[in-house]
Model the fold of this input.
Amino acid sequence: MTTRFLDLSAWNAVRDFADLRMTTRFLVFRATYGVSGVDARFAADVAAARAAGFKGEELYAYHFLAPCIVGTQVQHYFDTCARAGIVTRPIFDFEPDGMSTPTDVDLIYALRYAISARPTQRPIVYCNVSYALQQRLASYPEIAEMADLWLAHWAASPGTIPLPWKTALWWQEGAGTETGVAGKVDEDVVLAKDEGPGAEAPSPPNEAPAIPANLHAGAASCVIVPPDLRGHPSPPRHGEDAPANAAAQEGDPTITVDDVDDATPDPDTLPTGKP
Done:
């Protein structure tokens, strides 16, 4: 029997979690984004799901990864999850949002931070084929060693699995309608036979794998300063493009580098670490 689940964010108006309890095996909520963003519905939706009978192991949460200051992002995500009582595997949404573009460097550092903080939990990465190719993730087999793949591919079948992964754990197949949710909602499928609430996930390495030698360590110290953190908008829902004028509304982020070493090059000239 196919195990299906939903992923939810402030873009979704859930009318009745009791209805979802009857049809959905588990839920994945957007918890945080960037260095300080928190999904507007996260805490209330998690509480409502618990009240409807969803158990702790049936509630997951993800972080929408932004470029740079990754350690701060991961800690912000973990702190927000802890306040909501979410203790399941960490999940990182790795895709561009129209205003910023997380890189291979950001993803590897995020996974290292996550494994260091939660050494018994193997992270999950949400990504699609085109972005994995754009960021040349195939160059870094370490990523597949550290995390499982949640494949984003809106189609009738999962299709191609992007390297460095050989298999996908979960698959987001598209958006549909569900009793209890107003409008469209992302629908997902568990592909791994032994993975679901209550299943023992494969353990990550005892220690986070070393940073690949061809990644420029200085790139991880760059800092993004949004024009106005208080007005920083939520990123788009899975499968949706950001508004065409989003970048114009917010202005381009300013990127600087920690002033630790006077020899640190300008961020615009930093090598990407890609072959």
Observations:
- The domain at 1-275 is CATH 3.20.20.80 (TIM Barrel).
